[in-house]
Please model this.
Amino acid sequence: MRPSRKYDAIAEHYLLPAVLFSLNFCLVHLVYAFTPGSLYPFPARAVLAASFLLLGASLIRRQRLFLALSVLFYCLIFTVLLCLF
Amino acid sequence: MQQLLWKIHHWAGIYAGILIGILSLTGVLAVFIPEIDSFVLRYHYHARAAPVGTPQIGRSVDSLIGLYPAYRSLAIRLPDRDDPLAHVDLFVSEEGKGNFRYDYFIDPAGDRIIGYRDHQKSLANYLRQMHVRLYEGNWGRQLVGLGGIALVVVTVTGLLIYGNFMKKQTWPTLRKTVNTRIIMADWHKLLGIAALAFNLVIGLTGAWLGLQPWLVRWLDLQAPNRFEPAIIMEAGADRSLPVGWDEVLAAVNREFPDLRPRYLVPSTNGSATIAVRGNIDGLAYERDINTLILSKSTYEPVFRYDVRGKPFSHKLYFAQEALHFGDFGGLLLKLLYGILGLISGFLSISGFAVYLYRRKKRQRQASPARLIFVYSMIVVLFLVVIAVISLFIGYTQAATLAAYLINTLLVSLLAYAIIRAVATRFRKKPVTV
Model:
């Protein structure tokens, strides 16, 4: 029998909502980036897509560091794209 | 602290939940207004046209000006991706009848008028007015703004009490039970936290858009692209000045090449200008904010507003409506907004269900499912009755009925809240032995 994973309250109560919050923004951002006529060049779209995948993967893995880093990575990408375009 | 946050979430949800539910439902429809209107024009009015390069509209516009020489204002909407027709939006005062707003459709390939409608009675107008002001003309818009604030309050408090309510439960696990209250509570938490950012953005932008008339007055704000050209002639003379629409479009291409013009508005106040409003592709701002104002006599620019070169405050001001209606990422983004909007509506219903089932456990009252069904049917009936009156009788009659219903409901709700609060305060405490 597989041992059940210990419940991580920090990850479940704080980091996971932060990931879902970022994922909301990232999904809308991604759709906007891939809309015909979007100002984003290919590298920006690729980084945004990677950020979306990271957020999604962190939601599955549920490790504190992974969850926090995926949120930070998207925040960084969001800020840079907001400044550039 | 957790208890206080829960109480705020609970009371804001109870008193504003029905408003949030109505706004979510009408909002989902409002997101698709251009698509719905295009469908109505094509299949109800049989107004169809093939896409064209440069629209030909001069002869049709001149004939409408001949038909309504004393028009109050006129705006030409050029064809775009959503709608291949050109439109002339005319405000006219007819003696003894009142003011009217007509929407004439022009085939831009053949420069001919192919139909018209009373804008006030259109489905597009109903959908917009119902979402923007609940059809209540006095302060419905501000009421919707307060609904936006309530949505922000329930979203933020919901986030803050989330951990306490999840305890050892993991997202997105649903507890295996037949208890409807627990099922509803689990779905409420699961979807509430998943659509948190969306609800926060919708709440904040909705509050800003709804309370804008008050905020503009209190903070002495003006639309950043506002420009009042100097008056140089009599209003009547200005109205009768001929305009070469091809020259206007050529001037736009020359002076503001990135502008995709959508509206051409000739002045009627004596400034002898033509305002050209439109969009720049790829930007996530409110529609038709970029402006070029041309002289009617020389077609030289008098004023130009390009949001790209403006400060952050201008961009923030104009991002609100686009963010609220999801109008910056094509149909796919609108579909995403539609789904998330339905989730907001579900949160309002599931929150109410949790409240009712908990109350039933304590007080043995009527079936919560029946109560939710009755409330939902009352809301749908209100929306349908106002729609029927607005589409087939008139906007004024629909707005009058909506004003009576909404204000009566609001006064009753406030009176109930006050009586309940007073009763709770002065209720005798049970004698303890």
